[in-house]
Design goal:
The chain is of the alpha+beta class and about 375 residues long. It has 9 helices and 20 strands. The chain has 2 domains: about 220 residues, Rossmann fold; about 130 residues, Nucleic acid-binding proteins (OB fold (Dihydrolipoamide Acetyltransferase, E2P), Beta Barrel). The strands form 4 sheets. A 6-stranded mixed β-sheet has the order 6-7-8-3-9-10, with helices on both faces. Helix 4 crosses helix 5. The longest helix is centred in the middle third of the chain and has 18 residues. The two termini are about 30 Å apart.
């Protein structure tokens, strides 16, 4: 159990989750989860609806208690303590500002409640941090959604918590404003140096802001690491599909040649860097991101085996998106493949629906994941908007 009130409020250090399980009746929301969030880092819990990320956040906040396991900051055990006893603040999607108070008074509410002599000064410093000093005298209803969200962040930061929890904080904003706020939150976290734990279902949001992302699925962490590593080298079909789009095909392992592994599918052999092959037995799948794939009108040269080639296929769809053109190509034996071709200021292939096409990619961009029988894992959940 937790210690005395002073020890709890003054707890410092890494956020540590130790073998935490949370059950609601027969349903296991969080399943024996352990992780360490380094002090001062920007950490994201990412996953679809029902994966357990919001339940985990609520246990860190003290709004729920673990069925098993412990939640600690440094060496201080927070398990069993109440939310107000913890050095933790939460910013929710709903801003929950006091409508009758000015922006300055909203932010000063926490310091005044603690009887801080310089509550107004602390509020002004927090407002300066979120670049809203010029709106201090206004009421919440006079601010835009993005401005209100920044006030909510200032109101949490002014309390100088050891850990700041962000629960889908940008979900109510439109796309352009959401992207602006992603940059703002990253800047604020960098300046104040607090530990931020961000819960979201939005892949771009997590990858844009966080130093480390933990992808959750069915109460467990599927993979955790820097966002660029998760995207470039996923370990499971779920992570590959949930973090953007990918092309996956079931393959059979065929052996090793020095720094390369061989896998095969539909009568073709592909080379994959040994460092990008996590497993060599059981159900396996070869993956390659659409932006790594090139589309051709005629069969390209394989160049000694380090360029992978499939085809011929038939173009099923062509979509111009401004920055790129997206193709869907049906390749017999390999299914439907996505290709993103950047729209550079050069002559492009004039490919249309119904045309024959070949696909190629640098073998160094391939990766192999486990669970080849679950190629669509993560795809059905990527558009869900619930936490």
């Amino acid at each position: 159990m937790a210690g005395n009130a002073d020890a709890l409020k003054n707890a410092q250090g890494d956020l540590r989750i130790e073998s935490v399980t949370k059950r609601f009746g027969d349903f296991v929301a969080v399943d024996d989860l352990s992780l360490v969030v380094p002090r001062g880092s920007f950490f994201a819990l990412l996953g679809p609806s029902g994966c357990g990320k919001t339940t985990m956040l609520r246990m860190i906040a003290g709004l729920e208690q673990p069925t098993l396991g412990r939640v600690l900051i440094g060496e201080t055990d927070l398990t069993g303590s109440r939310p107000y006893e913890r050095p933790v603040n939460t910013v929710f999607q709903s801003y929950a500002l006091f409508p009758h108070l000015t922006i300055r008074d909203n932010v000063a509410f926490g310091p005044k409640r603690r009887k801080a002599a310089d509550a107004e000064k602390q509020a002004d410093e927090a407002l300066a941090l979120v670049q809203l000093s010029h709106l201090a005298a206004r009421k919440p209803a006079q601010l835009s959604g993005g401005q209100q969200q920044r006030v909510a962040v200032a109101r949490a930061i002014v309390n100088r918590p050891e850990v700041l929890l962000l629960d889908e904080p940008l979900g109510a904003l439109d796309l352009k404003l959401r992207r602006q706020m992603q940059i703002e939150l990253k800047r604020i976290q960098s300046e104040v140096g607090l530990t931020f734990v961000h819960v979201t279902h939005d892949q771009e949001e997590a990858m844009t802001m966080a130093d480390t992302v933990a992808v959750m699925n069915e109460g467990r962490i599927e993979q955790m690491g820097p966002p660029e590593i998760l995207y470039d080298l996923p370990r499971t079909p779920f992570v590959a599909n949930f973090l953007g789009q990918t092309n996956l095909i079931p393959v059979t392992y065929g052996g090793r040649d020095g720094d390369w592994q061989r896998v095969s599918a539909s009568g073709r052999t592909f080379q994959v860097a040994a460092a990008r092959t996590n497993e060599t037995s059981g159900a396996l799948a070869l993956g390659v991101r659409p932006e790594k794939v090139r589309i051709h009108e005629t069969e390209p040269d394989g160049r000694g085996g380090l360029t992978s080639v499939i085809g011929p296929g038939t173009v099923a769809d062509v979509s111009f998106t401004g920055v790129s053109t997206q193709y869907l190509v049906d390749v017999p034996g390999f299914g439907r493949w996505g290709v993103f071709e950047q729209n550079l200021d050069v002559e492009r292939i004039d490919t249309r629906v119904g045309d024959t096409a070949w696909l190629s990619w640098d073998a160094g961009h391939s990766f192999v994941v486990t669970g080849g029988e679950e190629l669509h894992a993560g795809m059905e959940t990527i558009d869900e908007a619930a936490p």
